[in-house]
Amino acid sequence: MECHVSAKAGNFALDVNIQVPAHDGWLGIAGPSGAGKSTFLQALAGFNPSASVAGNWGDLSFSQARNVVLVSAQTPLFPALSVAQNISLVATHNQCEQEQQSVVSLCECETLLTKNTASLSGGELQRVKLARALLASPKLLLLDESFSAMDKALRQRILYRLKAYLGEQVRVILVSHDVDDILQTCENLAQINGGQCLAVGRPEALINAEADTDTLPLSCVIYAAVQAVDPAAGLMALSLGKQLIQVKLQPGVSPGTKAKVRLSAKEITLATADAEVVKTNRLACQIIQVETVNHRQYRVALSCGEQKLVALVSQEVFTRSDLKVGGPVYACFDE
Ligand SMILES: Nc1ncnc2c1ncn2[C@@H]1O[C@H](COP(=O)(O)OP(=O)(O)OP(=O)(O)O)[C@@H](O)[C@H]1O
To answer: Where is the ABC transporter domain (predicted)?
Structure first.
């Protein structure tokens, strides 16, 4: 996939070039507020007359694409119509009536159908907008913070079902401030800042790389085999070599598959072998690098077999615990 977009929004200039393998599915876009993410999507959707758009994604040409559907905070609903009427209007217009029920169920809109759109909460509105977008038969679906008002469990469920529903027929670009949404669904991640694409690659690689904390939170991705799942407790066990950790269960995960879990550097507490830390998980690691972040904090890189982790530790704790590069340490964190 090659995508070249330049556009103006007021005094803001966007010039974004992104290249990823053509057969890859979803592209995630991350970046700080004001980076140009919405400007990029609006240009792709054809809403910015000043924009120049070029490139293609497989057989989809960005400059000539039809059925480009953008879902954003500005996406309007018909205020005088109920949710059911809003949805069925789009379904009828696009001759997608037979898909209406499955889309309503995918977006968990069943209990909203009789409501007036003015009475919907932020997350409910987003679900209705998404349902309408899916019934517009998109070839390119642009999602601009379309899950931001939903709780984590709900957005994970909907994203999981959405990915399965759209398959490989629909290309998706997902803008999100929640990097976990991108990690869960996107094959590639582009970091945008100042109207430019700073880096593009596999989300787990970019999140594990030397972090640019302006665009990505300092964290690492554990990619490990699922040993067991406990749906009642909402937990799953992952194996890292001979060590097991327990983390929150993700939709669609089963024993024998692999799962990606992001661990924020702030979630990890370091402990020496004999220290007491009350956390669910305790991974034996080795300290491989220590860097000063500011006058109070160290960024500590850890290895656990082939897995790399990163922790943020106050200088006081680091010194008091007598931690040293090359030395053993436990990385402790909750599920
Ligand atoms: N219609 C407009 N007129 C003037 N300036 C605009 C317009 N639209 C966007 N901008 C400016 O362009 C810049 C990028 O805005 P954009 O909405 O693309 O950022 P973003 O990355 O989506 O931010 P956020 O995460 O806060 O939604 C901002 O500085 C914004 O003020």
So the answer is: 1-219
